[in-house]
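Thread: Newbie trying to understand structure tokens

Hi all, I'm a second-year student working on a class project, and my supervisor (Dr. K.) asked me to get a predicted structure for one chain before our next meeting. I've only ever worked with sequences, so writing a 3D structure as a token string is new to me. If someone could post the tokens and maybe explain what I'm looking at, I'd be very grateful. Here's the chain:
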Amino acid sequence: MYWRGVISTAAAIAGVYCAGGSPALADSGVRKPPAAVRAESTDTKEQARDVPAPAPLFTSVQASKGHRSYMEDDYFLSADGRFAAVYDGHGGASVSKYLRQNLYTQVKANLPLEEQECGEEHIIQALKAAFKTVDDEVLKVRHWSYQGSTAVAVVIHPTVAGGNGNCSIITANVGDSRAVLCRRGKAVEITKDHKPNATAELDRIEALGGNVRWFGFIDPEGRPIEGTGVYRINGNLAVARAIGDSSERPFVSGECEIRSMPMDHEGDQFIIIATDGLWDVMTSDEVVQYVQAVMGGAMGALREGESRGEFPLASDRPVDMKLSDWTQRYADDRGMIRAAMMSRKKKMARYLAQEAIRRGTMDNVTVVVMFFR
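---
Reply by user tm_fold:
Sure, no problem. This is what the structure looks like when written as tokens:
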């Protein structure tokens, strides 16, 4: 994959990915948000055939308000599916919306302008520069002083020209939204949550003169009871890093953390990127297991006399036929089997968001699932 930025007379930034030296998918930069129903909709698409494997084959998205009356989450997907990000706003939705409109554009603006293969280091430096630029710009807006947003982005980057399948997974993260990879059936956290009580964050905050306190229930020995509260910086924010929040600087940091790892083309199945509305009520292992259960679960209609409400988990609903039996019966109709599997992938982000709400999350929930198989 090559990255090429083009600067127009209107100073809008556009980029073109190239494969093997030939133009591929073009993306104009900022994608307009869906209509007001975006908080209830699922957006999925298959990628173009001329994008070299293993670009995500399918991407499922769900953004839900949950039990709240307002929506502060946002997300962005590039046209070719190789860049995906979620943003969890706090104090308002302005900063998360700004990130959706500007972060990806800034990434492309910081990539080499010449038509050449763009290496992994170019992507890393572009991500660092983009995160710093959007943070600096948000801090300049006075009426956003008490607003901010987390940001986690995933880039799937081919490392060798010609589309031979060598890829890196590059992540950039600020805050406690999270990206998790399913590798050979196991959950691998490819970002780190920036919580105030994390050792490195706690040391940094206290060195600056701030404090981190527990707000929640404690046991008879005075120890925090996990799940009943949160750690907060100076009694306010429950996140150690974020874009914006000028009122909380320097205790809250806007510095992003970059990670990179080679893709396991045989073992990597999907990546889940989500705001903490999901991770507050499900562990990384549970989320990966949930996706696998839905994809490998039973097939068919509900048995007579049984209601869907009795079995809120898709994987728990009793049906007439197991998936393995169903695929054997229809082995000659590969189109039917593929359509059934694609239907589940299409709805996967929605299933996860609904499961988080069922488990009691009180936050907005935004989920992106990038499938490689």
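A couple of things are worth pointing out once you decode it. The chain has one domain: 2-29+60-194+239-371. The chain has a mean pLDDT of 80. Feel free to ask follow-ups in this thread.
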